[in-house]
């Protein structure tokens, strides 16, 4: 089941179990996402009805061990994200927000009681979580957050707002990061709590089959039992962000691969000047350039996965994957659209939808500029953020 863009036979680098997982997720995407994604995208609908099916596949918190989670490897998680994003970035984002952000926050920093209470329900898709870090005035600089939590007896009172928060209007719980007198802390906030509200951010030109929201906290009271005890600094949410960034390095290549395959099919079928587009030198150059960038990006993602599984993945390495793979994926999708000509702007064809989605993927979990400076600091030893 090799892909057309697999110029180096990368399938040989995966185990039979990894390939079987890939094929199961790919079948799900082919059966449930591809036939419907154009309608979902056009109508700006996130299909909540497929959440139980994602849970059944073990995709929610799949890299977490125990508590009803699948306990799959980092590489297997990456493979699944690549296949999901070949369907649509917005649907991969759901799995990322639920698993790599909300569930990871509880798994990494929660108490045993919190893990037992929430993780099995989240893995089953019965409880949906969101992750509230970014704010209206604090995007690339989360240290500038204005949301605060103050002690009131045995409780905490949270005041502030968050912006560009995936799933906020359908979430049952929100992982909320706030500034306290003791530093940044994390809280599990049930969305039914008095003073909590969420509103959808729309209309959007990107990620239309997903939900992005703004959260507001008007004197929201939570108990000490809802605080994440292991989260004692800004490092805690960044550990969760790195999980999501890792998955994006794989996912972006899924979108790129899908756009490339659409262009290659079209080039083989569409005839101009009495021969298929694929017979023209310029078209072949476009396809070759796209395939080369895809296989290079997949090699980066695979290397990150093997390092992560070995416990040797470092922060700057994740930035290599996030920066490179998002950047080249957008260019591949745009180039694929040119092969389709005017037909490329129709929603029935995937490349421009992928390109539009990737504008968001390229921005969230660290912009190009942020990851460039992370890598610049690694190379020079100099912090150029401020």
Automatic annotation (TrEMBL):
Residues covered by the Acyl-CoA oxidase/dehydrogenase middle domain: 130-220
Annotated metabolic or biological route of this protein: Amino-acid metabolism; tryptophan metabolism; Amino-acid metabolism; lysine degradation
Catalyzed reactions: glutaryl-CoA + oxidized [electron-transfer flavoprotein] + 2 H(+) = (2E)-butenoyl-CoA + reduced [electron-transfer flavoprotein] + CO2
Keywords for this protein: FAD, Flavoprotein, Oxidoreductase, Transit peptide
PROSITE patterns xref list: ACYL_COA_DH_1 (PS00072)
Name of the protein: glutaryl-CoA dehydrogenase (ETF)
PANTHER family noted in UniProt: GLUTARYL-COA DEHYDROGENASE, MITOCHONDRIAL
EC number of this enzyme: 1.3.8.6
Pfam families named among the record's database cross-references: Acyl-CoA_dh_1, Acyl-CoA_dh_M, Acyl-CoA_dh_N
Gene Ontology biological-process entries: fatty acid beta-oxidation using acyl-CoA dehydrogenase; fatty-acyl-CoA biosynthetic process
Entry annotated with the keyword Zinc: no
Domain Acyl-CoA dehydrogenase/oxidase C-terminal: 239-379
Listed cofactors: FAD
Family: Belongs to the acyl-CoA dehydrogenase family.
Source organism: Gulosibacter macacae
GO molecular function, one term: glutaryl-CoA dehydrogenase activity
Origin superkingdom: Bacteria
Listed InterPro entries: Acyl-CoA_DH_CS (IPR006089), Acyl-CoA_Oxase/DH_mid-dom (IPR006091), Acyl-CoA_Oxase/DH_mid-dom_sf (IPR046373), AcylCo_DH-like_C (IPR036250), AcylCo_DH/oxidase_C (IPR009075), AcylCoA_DH/ox_N (IPR013786), AcylCoA_DH/ox_N_sf (IPR037069), AcylCoA_DH/oxidase_NM_dom_sf (IPR009100)
Residues of the Acyl-CoA dehydrogenase/oxidase N-terminal domain: 16-125
